[in-house]
Amino acid sequence: MSSRPRQMLEHIRQELALGERENRLVPAIADGSAPLAVLAELAAQQHRIIASDRRSLLVLAARCADGPAGDYFAGFAEGESRALRSLDAFAARTGLSPHELLARRPLPGCQAYPSYLAWLALNGDPAGVVLALTANFAAWGKCTGFHLGPGQRKRERLASYALVA
Question: pLDDT tens digit string along 11-50?
């Protein structure tokens, strides 16, 4: 990666890092104090987000099928597939049936990101999308990947879930 894309990626990561301190839900999930209803809503919204992101990533993979970015996007799409499988088990542990999981209304604020990713999948410059996803997925994974486990494992009903495969 040349100097300019690296600088851009670092700048984006710094901007995203500022938002991590503003999230009140992640600490509540981490310490086990988030109510089960909140976790159920998180599961429902994440289900919509992950399914949409997976479709968007597959579109990007198809757009770039003959180049290295195609493998990059396809790899992320497979990760979204694994996350969906884990999410189904997580949702069940919050008390949501498969029907209830799909029947929850989408919250507009939760759906802004997948809407934008869908737009990028159709219209974005693949190199720019690679840069944006690299920064965003790293920040999201840092925010949720290790925070959603230890504190919530204190809850008997959620003792063995793993949201991130």
Answer: 777 776 655 556 677 778 878 888 999 999 999 999 999 9
Angle at 80 between CA 1 and CA 99, to 5 degrees: 160
Helices 68-93 and 36-63, axial angle in degrees (round to 10): 160
Closest CA to 67 of 147, 126, 11: 126
Q: Which two tokens stand for residue 117?
A: 């990713």
Does pTM top 0.85 for this prediction?
A: no
- Matching residue, tokens 């999230």: 23
CB 4 within 8 A of CB 128: no
Whole-number Cα distances in Å, 58 to 15, 47, 53: 27, 17, 9
